[in-house]
Amino acid sequence: xxxxxxxxxxxxxxxxxxxxxxxxxxxxxxxxxxxxxxxxxxxxxxxxxxxxxxxxxxxxxxxxxxxxxxxxxxxxxxxxxxxxxxxxxxxxxxxxxxxxxxxxxxxxxxxxxxxxxxxxxxxxxxxxxxxxxxxxxxxxxxxxxxxx
Length: 148
What we know:
By secondary structure, the chain is mostly helical.
């Protein structure tokens, strides 16, 4: 099921899954009267949207680093304005930033992996993007979540 799908049916399915999680967290007697965000935090769960974002970032990390091989019809491009060296390069983010694939708002590639993760990927700290292994990347992503 694609994330952030534009169709009503798929959005309805996502909302249904989220409602199931809301009800399931209310089954814990001590958490029953707390708000949803607090119940999630106390049970160590995240929202469906955050899990999908995390999964997309992990998948893109694997693709970017050649762990998963994909033959691209239109490969992603590095952001040109950021690939410079000098004193301002650290202020502008990491040098593994990518450009958005140009699509129409409702085209087939609008919800493509690169376009979905682009803002989150480009806003990651350099330390996270340069992780040596997938496991260390996951740990650094999870550390980011706990700091929020």
